[in-house]
Design brief:
Number of domains: 2
Number of helices: 9
Strand order of the largest sheet: 6-7-8-3-9-10
Oligomer: single chain
Strand content: 15-25%
Radius of gyration: 19 Å
Order of helices and strands: EEEHEEHEHHHEHEHEEHH
CATH superfamily of the largest domain: P-loop containing nucleotide triphosphate hydrolases
Shape: globular
Largest sheet: 6 strands, mixed
CATH architecture of the largest domain: 3-Layer(aba) Sandwich
Amino acid sequence: MNDQSPSNDPSQNARTILETRGLTKDFKGFTAIKDINLAVKQGSIHALIGPNGAGKTTFFNLLTKFLTPTSGSIIFEDQDITHRKPADIAQNGIIRSFQISSVFPHLSARNNVRIALQRKLGVSYHFWRPLKILTQLDDQAQALLEQVGLAEFGDTPAVELAYGRKRALEIATTVALEPRLMLLDEPTQGMSAEDVGTVTELIKRVVEGRTIIMVEHNLSVVASVADTITVLNRGEILAEGDYQTVSNNPLVMEAYMGTVDAE
């Protein structure tokens, strides 16, 4: 692994915004996640890495309540959310960006962002609104498009955007929801080297001051953006720390480097 510095350096005294305590998930005799104790600091980018089958996606599904843990608890902003419903989790400010782009393909980039803004305002399905409100949302949507480098593509249907730009649009719609915790699931998966660089810089720019948990296979991306890295293997935490710490861990090199291209 190459030694690179992360983009952020949050205070060591930052409060813990998310904590899991003994989080475990069993599937008919198979333990996908076992006794995970994780603490995510507010304002940091916390990366989860590990070989395929390590439990990263299961962990995300537990956080967003697509799965119910067998045991353990999830604490978000000092509240136990272990048994909350998925809709409640989203309303509490935990927003997930999926591996596959989830934008509306036949709507323009601007309208995709505007729908996210409408949802945040609680008027997602109120299409007959005063022109002033709609114009305000258009202005906000355009500002978010500019933030992610899509200013000139506001009128372009999402289906016509290149893959990297679709992911940028998805990040813009996620930011529009004003999440207190963003979950980025493989944000650079399937991208060319050029798109990976673009999206990496985008993540650095738009997430400044926000709290992120990111699952990512591309180690150069992790090295450049993550403040803390947790390495999972066979459902358990193998190592944790900054990039230099985990990259020099012999157990990590044995379990991870043999199965994933470090790029």
